[in-house]
Amino acid sequence: MQPWQSNASGILTVIKNNMKIKKILLLAVTSIVCLTINAQTSVDKDCTPKKGDITLAATVGYNSYTSITAPSGLLTDYELAAISTNWSDKKLMVGFESGWFFRDTWKLNLGGGINFTNSPGYTAVPGTIDEDSEIGDGSIPNYRAVADSYSFSYNVFTGIDKYYKIKSVPNLMMYGGIRIGFAYGLNEMKYDEPESMGKSDAETWNLRGGLTFGLDYFLAKGIYVGCQVDPFSYTYNMTSVKPQEGLSDLSADSHNYSIMSAPTIKIGFKF
Q: Where do the domains of the chain lie?
C-alpha cells in the first residue's frame, strides 16, 4: 500500500465517523425543536414525573463496545494491543435503560445487557493437494477445521440524575448526572486438528465513568422522548489473550479521556 493510499483510507474513516455523529445530532436537535414547537401550541398540562415514577426506555447511541476474537494457537509470535475506546472506534448501539424517581426531580438509573453465541466446530477435510501439486492439475484443496467457538459478553451501568423544569416550555426537562459502567467480553476457540495446542481464549473489559447532560420531553403521562451526551468521560480497558493452554496471559491496557461523547437518543415509557 502506498503512503497516499493509507492517508486516504484514514481520511475516509474520519469522514464516515463524522457523518454518523452529524446524523445522530441532527436527529436529536430536530426532534427537540419539533417537540418544543408542539409544546408551545399544546394545552398546558403537566406530564412531568413525580416521586415514585418508574421509566423504561429504548436507546440508540454512538458509543464504545466490547468485542474480541481469540487468536490462532498455531503462531510462533504473538502481539497484542488493548481494545480501543477512542471516539473514532465507536459504533451505533441499541440498548435499554430503566429509572426510578426517588424524588420529584431526582432519578436513579440502571441498565445493562447480556449476549452469548455458541458456534459448533467441524473437523478438517483433507484434499489431494501436496507439495508436488501444480496450479490447474486438478488437485483438490484441503478444507481446514472450523473452530468450536463460544462468545459471551455483558454490560451494566448505574447513575443518578438531577432534573430541572424549563418554565418556558411545559413538560420539557433538563438534567445532569453521573454514570458508572462495566462491560466484559470473552471469546474461546478450539480447532479439531492434530496440530492444535488446545483451547485459545481472549477476554476484555471496560470500566467507565462520566458526566452526562440531557433533555427529556414528556409527550403524555406515560410516554417521553429525549437526548443526551456525556460532556466528559473516562474509560479504562484491559485486554488479555491466552493462545494455548498452559501459557500465561498476554495483556495490554489503555486509558481514554473523552469530551462530548456517547450522543444518545431515546424513547421511553413512564409508569
A: 3-270
